[in-house]
Predict the structure.
Amino acid sequence: MSKSPLPGRPETVYYFPTCLIDLFYPEAGMAGIELLQRAGTKVVMPTKQSCCGQPARNCGYYEEARAVARAQLAAFPNDWPIVVPSGSCAGMMKKHYPELFAGTPELPKIQAFCDRVFELTWFLVHKMDIKLVDKGEPIKVTWHGSCHSMREMGVIEEPKDLLRSLSNVTLLEAEHEKECCGFGGTFSVRLPEVSAAMVTDKVGSIVATGATEVVSGDMGCMMNISGAMKKAKAPVRGRHIAEFLLERIGKGDA
Amino acid sequence: MPELSHDFEHAAVEALGNKQLRTNLRRVMTGLINKRAAQFPDFDELQALRTRGAAIKDRALAKLPDLLVQLEQNLIAKGFHVHWAQSVEEGNKIILDILKKANARSIIKGKSMVSEEMHFNHFLEENGVKALESDLGEYIIQLAGETPSHIVMPAIHKNKDQIGKLFQEKIDGQPYTEDPDELTAAARRVLRQLFASADCGFSGVNFAAADTGTLVLISNEGNGRMSTHLPSMHIALMGIEKCIERLEDVGPLISLACRSATGQPITTYVNMISGPRKSNEKDGPKEVHLVLLDNGRTKIYQDPELREGLRCIRCAACMNHCPVYTRIGGHAYQYTYPGPIGEVLNPQMQGIEKAGDVLHASSLCGRCSEVCPVKIPLADLIVRLRREAIRPAADAVKGGGSRKSNMEDVIWFGWKTMYASPLLYRWGTWWLRKIGNFMPAGIPLLKQWTSVRSKPQFASRSIYDLARERGIRDE
C-alpha cells in the first residue's frame, strides 16, 4: 500500500461520517478514516456537519430537509472530495439534493457540492487504487449491499471486489442478496410488521450461507440486520466493511 | 374532513400472517425475477431500450390531447364506435347502454385492469348481464369471488392445490387434481362453449396507435383473440394514457412489456385490431366499440412530475420486484393496482384521505424504479405523494394535505432545528449519548423496532471526539 499521493489521487479529502455512525458506531467511521489515510490521502472531518437530511426528505418534509442540507453545504467550504461511509447518505446528497433545490437560485451551488460526494468503497477502489494485504485467519463472510448504494450510487461490485482481494476471505453470496433488508429509515417503524418480516427473511438467508460475518457499507442496514441477528441469537457477526477491512490488513499497522 | 383510512395497514398485517400466501408469492416472484433477468443479459441493451420506451411514451403524452382526437378520427373511419367516459359511472353506463341496445345478455371477457377500476363485472351482474372472464387467472378468481391480486397474473396468490379444490367445488363433474394441464383443460372446456355462445366479446387494450387507428392486444392464452373475434360484437376498454403516436412505436414497447412482465421475448399472441368485419370478410365481429376512460388520469396529467406515472405499460415488474408486495400480495393494497405503481396511482385516483396510507408501503429501496421498463421514478413519485399528503402543492392531488399531523410537524421542526445547527447537534447528541441507552424498549418507535431486533446502543463517545484525540483535522 502506497502512502504518498500518486498522480490523480486527491491529496486531501473531506469525511462525512453520517449521524448514525456518530451516534451508534463511531469506530466504523474511524476505520473508514484510517483506510483513506493508509491509501495515501489526508482526511479532514469538519465538526460543523450533522446529517444529510434524508429522514425528512423521505417523509415528504422537503423544507426541513433543505434547511439541514444548507447546513451541510456550509460545513464543507473547500473543493475537496467528500467521502461518505454510507451509500444511502451519499445517495441522498448526490441524487436528491438537486431535486430538493430544483428551480431555486441555490441549485448551481448545490450541484457543485453534489458532484464532490463519493461513497467510501467506490472512492477507495477508483480514486485511491487501494491495495489490501490480508493478515487475518481464513474466514467466510457474506455481503449485504444497501439499496441506495447499489441503485443511487451505482456501487455494486467495488466492495465485493475489495473483499475478494483478501487472500484468506471467502465471500459467499446470500440468496436474494440484492433485496432490501427492511430498514428504510422510518419505514421500519411506520410499517413495522412488514419491515420485521423482511429483516427476518434477510437474517435467514445470511445464516444459510454459513458465513460467520456479514459486512455492509451502510450502518442503517447493519443496525437493522445486526439487531435482528442478536435478538434471534444468530451465530453471525455484523460490521461495516471499513471496520472489517481494517482488521484484516492490521489495524494501526502501517 | 373525510375520515382517514388505514385499511391498507390493517390488511398488510393480516396478509403477513398467511404463511401459504407468503410461500406462494416468494416462489413465483423469484421465478419471475429470474426469468426477466434472463431476458436482459445485456445491461446496455436494457438501458437503451428503457430509454427508448420512456421516450416513446413521453412523446405520446406530450401530444396526448391531439393524438386522442387523431385516434378517434382514424377509428371512426375504420368503422369503430368511439365513446368517452370521464368517470367510472359514466364508463359503466356507456357499456351497459351498448349491450342493451344490442340486446346482449352475456359477455365473454379478456383481461382488463381498467374494467377492474370500474368494478365492471359487479355492475353488469346488478343489471342482469352475465360477464364471464376468459383469461385463466381471471376465471379462477371469478370462480373464487375475489379480485385480482396482480395485474398480469391475477390469481398468482393461489397455488395448484388451492385451484384444484376450487375447480372441484365450482365446476360440475370436475374431480380434484393438482395437474396444471388438467386444470387448464377443465377451464378450457367451460370457456370454449361460452366463446361460441356469448352475445358480446370484451377486452382491454395494451396500446392504441393513433396514426393508423389500431388497437394492440397482447396475450398468451388465445382468449384475447377469441373474445375479440368470435362474438358478433366486441367492446374494448382503455385508459386514455394507452394511446401512442405511431404503430411503429409498438415494437419496442411490446419487447419491453413482455420481457419485463413474464420473461418472454414476446407473448404467444399479438392482436392488431383494426375494425369490424368488412363486407368481403368471413369472420370477425360485426360491431366494434372502444370506450376511453379518464378516471383521474387528466388530473395526473396536469402535473409534469406525476405525469411520469402515466408512462406505465402495466408489465408488473415493479410489483414482482417489490419486497413489500412479495410479502403481502396484492389484495392488501385495497384498490385496483397493487405494488409500487398502485402506491402511485391509487392515492391519486381515490384521494389521499382514502388511499394515502399505502404511501408508507415502501422502504424506498428503489428496485421498482430500477426495473421499470419505461423508467418511471416510482420511489421518487411515492416521496412526492408523501409530500402531497402533508403539504400539498396547489390542488395537485385529490385529498392533498389530508394526512398532515400536528404532532409530526412538531417532531420534524425539532429535528430540523437540531440538525441544521452545529451547536445544537453537538449538544443534542451529547444528551442522547448520556440518556439514550436508558430509554425503555416499550416506548413508541422503540417498541416497534425491538419486536424482532435488539435495542441499538448509543456509543459513549462521539466520532468527532475520537477523531480529535487521534489527530484528525477538523477544518
Residues 1-5 of chain A have pLDDT under 50 and may be disordered. The longest strand of chain A covers residues 139-144. Residues 12-126 of chain A form one domain.
